[in-house]
Specification:
single chain; mainly beta; 18-stranded parallel sheet; six-stranded parallel sheet; elongated
């Protein structure tokens, strides 16, 4: 089929080696017409070796081999396919390193190598792939510094380097990449502080620096990232408080600052004015003050996790206004008072209140939570019995009620598991 331009066989059960004729000029005319090859989600195990003396087709534009079973080193001879705009080898078991010849991909717009077994430093030559818009190297074993040469990729939109072994600091010149929408550097060994230059990236929607060794205070200039939707700084070494300027992130949907241990103080009132916020996790820190009633104004909130802090006072009854709330986690604090019956208005809820100083009975109204999945009330000062009607919570999988009167264990229902751990 000398005139074939598109080969689309994705999502089948094809196996064996990917034939070399796809990549090389094997026709009598000495050229290949194939421009788009989509073989993702199959069971290919390898790539046929290139024929002696053959050159990769310069007509090939898209090569998609994601989610197969490809093994062996990264095929350096791919770099001869200089017309490629998209190369997707993600989700295989490819090993080896990126060759310096990567700079031959002058037309490349997307390089997706995530979820493989590649290692070594990323060559600085990648900075010469001037058309690159997406660089995905996530979940490999790349190490060394994040190359400063990435700061030359002026068209770069999405940078995925998470789940590797990168060390040293975040290159400040990433702040020159005005088109950046995604920076994902989670799960590395990056240290230092967040460069001020990153705060100039007005198009940034996702900043994920979780699971590194970054320290210092959260910069007040974080409020300049007006388009930010996801901010994940969890499991680092940040200290100080949450800057009030975070209240300027009106598009923010997910905020995760958990696992710092040195973030402290009261929560700024500006945090309660983020109209798009759906997920907030501040767990495992040293925040204090009353359990904030201000979260009640965040109508779109799905997850509120304030566990393992030093919050005190009572659980605001107004949390019952959060009709979309799915997870309320306030465990390991110093909360007192009774469990507000108003929480029963949150129809699909996981409730985690373990290790506080709550008292009084378990509200009978909680039995109205037909979609209740988990109710963890252990290690409190609650009294009385479990409301019998809680057996109507047909989605309930886990019920923890340790240290409450033994009388509560009279219920026998396959719907939930009761534990006194």
């Amino acid at each position: 089929m000398p005139k074939l331009q598109v080969l689309a066989l994705a999502r089948n059960r094809l196996s064996g080696d990917v034939p070399a004729s796809i990549f090389y000029n094997t026709s009598a005319a000495g050229s290949s017409s194939l421009r788009i090859v989509q073989l993702g989600y199959n069971e290919f195990a390898g790539l046929a070796l290139p024929p002696q003396g053959q050159h990769a087709s310069t007509a090939l534009r898209v090569l998609d081999l994601k989610e197969n079973r490809l093994t062996g080193d990264f095929p350096a001879w791919f770099t001869n396919a200089t017309g490629l705009t998209v190369l997707d080898l993600s989700g295989n078991t490819i090993s080896g390193s990126l060759p310096p010849e990567i700079d031959r991909f002058a037309s490349l717009q997307e390089l997706r190598l995530g979820r493989n077994s590649m290692a070594g430093p990323v060559p600085g030559e990648i900075g010469r792939c001037s058309g690159l818009q997406v660089l995905d190297l996530e979940e490999n074993q790349f190490y060394g510094r994040i190359p400063a040469a990435l700061g030359s990729l002026s068209l770069l939109r999405d940078l995925y380097l998470g789940g590797n072994l990168f060390s040293s600091v975040i290159p400040a010149n990433l702040g020159n990449l005005s088109k950046l929408q995604t920076i994902s550097l989670y799960g590395n060994k990056i240290s230092g502080s967040i460069p001020d230059e990153l705060m100039k990236l007005s198009n940034l929607t996702t900043l994920d620096l979780a699971g590194n060794d970054i320290s210092g205070e959260i910069p007040s200039t974080i409020g300049d990232l007006a388009g930010l939707q996801t901010l994940n700084l969890s499991k680092n070494g940040f200290s100080g408080g949450i800057p009030a300027e975070i209240g300027r992130l009106l598009n923010l949907k997910s905020l995760d600052l958990s696992g710092q241990r040195n973030l402290s103080g009261n929560l700024p009132a500006e945090l309660f004015g983020l109209p798009s916020l759906q997920v907030i996790s501040l767990a495992d820190n040293a925040f204090s003050g009353q359990v904030p009633e201000g979260f009640s104004s965040l109508w779109s909130l799905h997850v509120l996790n304030l566990s393992a802090n030093s919050f005190s006072g009572v659980i605001p009854a107004t949390y019952g206004y959060l009709q979309y709330l799915r997870v309320l986690s306030l465990s390991y604090n110093n909360i007192t008072g009774e469990i507000p019956a108003d929480l029963a208005n949150c129809s699909n809820l996981t409730v985690q209140l373990r290790y506080n100083h709550l008292s009084g009975p378990i509200p009978e109204d909680l039995a109205r939570l037909s979609a209740l999945v988990e109710l963890d009330l252990g290690q409190n000062n609650l009294s009385g019995n479990i409301p019998p009607d809680i057996s109507n919570c047909t989605s309930l999988v886990t019920l923890w009620t340790a240290t409450i009167s033994p009388a509560i264990f009279q219920i026998r229902s396959p719907i939930f598991r009761s534990s006194r751990r």
